[in-house]
Write a structure and sequence with these properties.
Helix content: 40-55%
Largest sheet: 6 strands, parallel
Distance between the termini: 90 Å
Radius of gyration: 48 Å
Structural class: alpha/beta
Shape: extended
Length: about 600
């Protein structure tokens, strides 16, 4: 409804109606009146009565009008909307008045509480600070790489006694303002290096996408995409040299600033301020200010620099505290030897002496006893069995590289097997997983044939490369087992998930199987599927046992004696701990 005045009629009963109803409801003898749209809702009750009576009047006159029904429905909808909005506005107004009253009451209560608190504070006596710490000492931390200062002090008399109000101790170090400028240089350098890294990472995919856009068909937004990548790459190409120059300059500034740190600390007590470096709880009287030795780090604590410290005894109220006397200058420095690791040093020296001693004896030709290994002793029997049966010997070096310790130990065993094969004139098959391992294995087998005095019997097809795909290699080796039916299978080296597949296939072929690996997870599979298994370091011992090289044999003997010493000392330590012989257990205590 508009705000303009509406022409309406007044019926004999005094009900205002709009011209919409006048054709049916208003008699000809009624007088005219004027009502605005704003005045109409005031007589809404009467109008509802008329609206409800319209159908009966229309039925009485027997002149139904479809247009009248449509107009009636429109009027009813507008009247309901107005009534709903009017109720909502009244509810919101009441709620706003209620909130205003509540906030006013709360503000008054807060004001009263503040005034009461201020009054109590003004009337209460001022809190007394605790007694300060005494005998504060600062010194270089011992047995470290430097960049650390240790502080000790006597507790405040009010810590656990007296007024008993000490809550914690805050440690402060005097820092020159120069360190702030150095920190700013480090932050700029870090930001610039990050920006360079982001640009270098962004360039390759951006160039790839740009080429894709150029090669693709132009479409909606095509020109904008090409322009975006072209502009971005151009900006990157322009900014990268500038950023790199800026990084070089900032690094020079940082290095110069680091060199100036000792001289900047000599300006104490001017041109600097006290800054907190740590907090310890009440009852503690020791603090270690530990920095890092990396000069590029923000936590770098320079050695040979005069530092000054103080300790504040703080109560629950941080404003109530007492300061100690200043201690300094103190300088940090690194030590050449950590006295807390003397037992480790002694153990290393003893083991080194044993190693040199046994290697020297082995070089002189003295026979050193090595505990026999059943798996290695079975190699000669297996080779003899293969010779009697006229079947080949399959030797698998595993999936390791030529740099793996297990593979290196396997080369020594392969040399021994090749020499025996050449002596017995038995066929040898060595499929390889790695091409570098294949090259080394060829030279090892060739040397074994030469040592046996039969170099002409060596065939290059003995050792061959298969593939570097794990299970494709296993499938090929399994095929060799099932076709050639070797009398003996030897698995020495590094093995993974293929260990059980190889061992089960060899068992089906009826071969004698000897395995050895340092992969702990694969040892159980070899144990259940093979005839002999070298467990862990027995693989390394086998190479020394078969090769009889002085270097390997001397190291093996030194390890055996070292193991025996560890077992004996551990047993003695258990006895000493039970008998409370602290002097003995202290001998083997190692600090950080």
């Amino acid at each position: 409804m508009s705000s303009s005045r509406l022409s309406c009629k007044r019926t004999k009963r005094g009900c205002p109606t709009s011209p919409l109803f006048g054709q049916v409801l208003a008699p000809a003898s009624s007088r005219r009146c004027d009502l605005t749209a704003r005045e109409l809702p005031r007589n809404a009750k009467t109008c509802r009565t008329i609206v409800g009576r319209v159908p009966r009047e229309a039925q009485r006159n027997k002149k139904p009008d479809i247009r009248l029904d449509i107009r009636l429905q429109d009027f009813q909808a507008r009247l309901k909307t107005y009534t709903r909005h009017r109720i909502t506005i009244r509810s919101l107004t009441a709620l706003l008045l209620l909130l205003t009253a509540l906030s006013g009451s709360q503000a008054q209560d807060n004001a009263d509480s503040v005034l009461t608190s201020d009054l109590e504070t003004s009337l209460a006596p001022a809190a007394l600070p605790p007694a300060p710490v005494t005998e504060l000492k600062a010194f270089d931390s011992k047995n470290d790489h430097g960049h650390s200062v240790t502080l000790n002090w006597r507790l405040s008399p009010d810590d656990g006694a007296g007024k008993n109000i000490v809550f914690a101790y805050e440690v402060y170090r005097w820092v020159p303002f120069f360190m702030d400028s150095l920190k700013s240089v480090r932050e700029k350098l870090s930001q610039t290096e990050s920006a360079i890294a982001e640009l270098e990472v962004f360039e390759p995919p951006a160039k790839h996408l740009l080429n894709m856009h150029r090669e693709g068909k132009p479409g909606k937004g095509f020109a904008d995409s090409v322009k975006f990548y072209e502009d971005t790459l151009a900006a990157s190409k322009r900014l990268l040299p500038e950023y790199r120059q800026q990084v070089d300059r900032l690094r020079d500034e940082r290095d110069e600033g680091i060199d100036r740190i000792p001289s900047a600390h000599t300006s104490y007590p001017s041109e600097g301020e006290w800054r907190k470096v740590g907090t310890v709880v009440a009852g503690e009287s020791r603090f270690e200010n530990v920095g890092v030795k990396d000069k590029e780090s923000a936590d770098y604590l320079a050695d040979n620099t005069p530092y000054y410290y103080r300790v504040d005894a703080v109560t629950v109220n941080p404003a109530v505290r007492s300061q100690s006397d200043v201690v300094g200058p103190v300088r940090s420095s690194g030590q050449w030897f950590n006295t807390g690791r003397v037992p480790v040093f002694v153990a290393v020296m003893v083991f080194g002496f044993l190693t040199v001693y046994f290697i020297t004896r082995a070089k002189r030709g003295i026979d050193l006893y090595v505990r026999p290994l059943a798996g290695i002793d079975a190699v000669d029997d297996a080779i003899g069995r293969a010779t009697e049966m006229g079947k080949p010997i399959l030797y698998v070096l595993g999936l390791g590289t030529a740099a793996d310790i297990a593979t290196i130990a396997s080369f020594t065993i392969l040399g021994r097997v090749a020499r025996r094969v050449a002596e017995y004139q038995t066929q040898l098959i060595v499929p390889c997983y790695d091409p570098i391992v294949m090259t080394v294995a060829q030279e090892t087998v060739k040397a074994g044939f030469s040592d046996a005095g039969r170099p002409e019997a060596y065939n290059e097809d003995i050792v061959y490369f298969v593939t570097q795909s794990q299970f494709a290699y296993v499938a090929a080796v399994n095929g060799v087992m099932l076709r050639q039916l070797p009398a003996t299978n030897v698995y020495m080296g590094r093995f993974y998930a293929e260990s059980l597949i190889l061992a089960e296939t060899g068992a089906l072929a009826g071969s004698i199987q000897i395995a050895g690996t340092d992969e702990i997870a694969q040892i159980p599979f070899f144990i259940v599927a093979c005839d002999f298994t070298l467990i862990g370091e027995e693989l390394y011992a086998a190479s020394a046992y078969l090769g009889r090289e002085p270097l390997l044999l001397g190291s093996l003997k030194a390890q055996d004696y070292a193991k025996a010493a560890v077992i004996a000392l551990a047993t003695a330590g258990i006895v000493a701990a039970n008998l409370d012989w602290t002097w003995f257990t202290t001998l083997f205590r190692v600090s950080r």
